[in-house]
Every structure is written in C-alpha cells, then in structure tokens.
Description:
Layout: E1 11-17, H1 21-32, E2 39-46, H2 50-55, H3 58-61, E3 66-71, H4 77-85, E4 92-95, E5 101-102, H5 106-116, E6 121-130, E7 142-145, E8 152-153, H6 157-167, E9 179-182, H7 183-193, H8 202-214, E10 218-229, H9 234-237, H10 243-246, H11 261-275, H12 277-280, H13 287-303, H14 309-320, H15 324-333, H16 355-366, H17 368-377, E11 387-390, H18 391-394, H19 399-420
Parallel strand pairs: 1-2, 1-4, 2-3, 6-10
Antiparallel strand pairs: 4-9, 5-10, 6-7, 6-9, 7-11, 8-10
Amino acid sequence: xxxxxxxxxxxxxxxxxxxxxxxxxxxxxxxxxxxxxxxxxxxxxxxxxxxxxxxxxxxxxxxxxxxxxxxxxxxxxxxxxxxxxxxxxxxxxxxxxxxxxxxxxxxxxxxxxxxxxxxxxxxxxxxxxxxxxxxxxxxxxxxxxxxxxxxxxxxxxxxxxxxxxxxxxxxxxxxxxxxxxxxxxxxxxxxxxxxxxxxxxxxxxxxxxxxxxxxxxxxxxxxxxxxxxxxxxxxxxxxxxxxxxxxxxxxxxxxxxxxxxxxxxxxxxxxxxxxxxxxxxxxxxxxxxxxxxxxxxxxxxxxxxxxxxxxxxxxxxxxxxxxxxxxxxxxxxxxxxxxxxxxxxxxxxxxxxxxxxxxxxxxxxxxxxxxxxxxxxxxxxxxxxxxxxxxxxxxxxxxxxxxxxxxxxxxxxxxxxxxxxxxxxxxxx
Length: 429
C-alpha cells in the first residue's frame, strides 16, 4: 500500500462547493469513510463566503486525507469544477457534489471493476435522497432506489451511445459524480474537444466525449452514490420557474428552446457529436421520442401549477414542421407502455409496516451490532422494481445515514420480496 504522503496518490475525490457547509460536512464524511488508504480529498470553494470556509478546512485535520483549495476569483460552476480538477494528483479521479454522498466502499468497487475489465473509466448507478427541505412533504427524508442487477460488466461504448441517442436517457453514462476515470482519459478527452462542460448540460456533453476517449468502460450496476435533492436544487426549483426562465437561453441543434431535461440532453448530444464528428457520425436522434418526452415534461410542469400554454403552442408548431415519418412514429409510440421515469416521479410509495413488526424493527435499527449481522445474513438479490424507503422507519435522518444503511436496506427489502414470491415495489422497515 502506498504511503499517504507521496506526491501522487492513487485516488482523488474532488468536491467543488460554495456556501453550503451544512451539506459539505456530510459529503466529506462519506468521502473519508471510503476504505481505500491511498486517497486524497480536494475541497475547492468557489468564491465562497465564510460559510464554506468554516467547514472545508476541517478536512485536512481529520485523517490527513483532505486539502482545501480556496478559489477567490468569481466564476460559474464550470470554472469551479475545472479549477478543482487542476489540483488533483491522483491516478484516478472522481467528483462528488457537496450535496451528495458516497456509499461505503464505492471507490474500491469501482476501481476493482475498472481493473477487472482493463478499462480506464468506470461508472455506476445512483440512488436519490430527498432532503427534509424537499418541496414534496411525502418524499422528505426518503431514499429512492431504481431497479438494478448488481452486475459488473463492460458493454460496448457504441451501445451506450446508441441508447442515449435513441431513448434520450443517460444509462451507464459518466456524470462525474458517478464515475471514476483515469487521468489519461481526461487528457485524451481534452485533446478531442479542448474545453470540458461547454454547454448547459455539460456533464452529458463531456460524458459522451469521455466514453469515446476511453473506448472501454466498466459498469457497476448498483447504486454507489446518493444524489441529494433539496429545496434549492435544480430538480426542486424547475417546477417553480415560469416559462420565461425555462426559455431564457436558446439551445443549439434542437427545435425547442425549453430548458427541460430532454432538451438539454439532446442539445448536448448533438453538440458533442458535432465536435467529434468522425467518431460519432453514425448516431441519430430519435426525434419522435424527443417530442414525446418534452410533451411529458410540459405536462409535469402543468401539474405543478406552471403556465405552459405558450410552450405548448411552440411545441405544436415545431412538431408540424417535422417530417411526416416523425409525426407518425410519435403517434405509434404513444400506444406503447409508458416507461418508468428515471427521476422516480412514478415510483410506488412505500407500504406501511404493521405496528407489531415496527416494534421489533426499532431495536435492530438502533443497534449497530444487530444491524451488522442482519446485513450479513440477509440474501442479496437483484432489485426488479423501485424502492422508496422511509428514513424515519429505516433508522436514518440524513443522506449520510442513508449511505450507511444502504447494504441492510437493500438486503432487507429484497428478502421480503423473495419470500413473498413477487417483485419488491416498496420496503417495510
């Protein structure tokens, strides 16, 4: 094992932050909880006031793993991430947002997958934690896990890109907080495009170029990171924005100006394709699905009280200008079973535990010894449907507690589904 004081550690966790010490403390704790010994943690404050400065400098004092790199010049998120990355010394890099958290053992699992498949890039699935400030009361302090198999593989990069262009979904996609990359891959990526994060959906753009630069990518099909959703995050505030805010900045290569997830993703894919045309010229956007998904996002905003009449009018105008085969495909696809939303909007609610069962669960939830042994004894099965877990019943009160409970929560929910002979749609704890 390498000495911690060497100039080039094996792993670097990069945490850009600004004025969010209340979240940063938990992200740091999850980074320090990684079992890898040869690890550095870089915290970069983006033009921060005293809030970040009060929390970040504690990183070097706890375990000797952290470095705080203040960033005094003002800049946007792209400048912050690029600046933080310039200070990384590790052979392998990963990002961690200050409102997210790593599951214990995440980086070891990812590094093992990369080495097993001789890949310079590894990606993994993620879960979602709803902070107590989340706008939906029913989701606060809940954990959402999407279906996964637990398998480790290395699917062809071309298949991953083809799926993104056809389904307009980022599956097995490096979004930086769910990726471990060799520094040489980052250098090859820069040689292709010159600048990372050049558009609003910069993680999608750069992820596509990273996949092309890596040529081989290991995939860990289980959640190793929890993404934090809270009242001030983009996901929460999107429904509160009016049409003017959603169309404030035009997007290249797409017919609609909306700053919806599908529109941002499609624009970034086409921009990246243009930048690396010889490497990605064969992929084609499924425009029928593009219009179907943007229509679904407008309906979601309408359900949250946003006036989208002008957006819908523009949507119909742009659809009418599309070739006939796109319009026909849009109609035929409307009769297919609707896919479950990636963000979990249609995930089933957790079932309520029986009172007597809850009384038996509480002592186990509070006892680290009992919790550990139950984790070891429970069978590990694949998750076939989404799990929405109530933190109050499961014994966690924040995102850090949720990461620590992940092995037991998954095993417990799977065991119940297995005994009852059906897919698990919720967990009773």
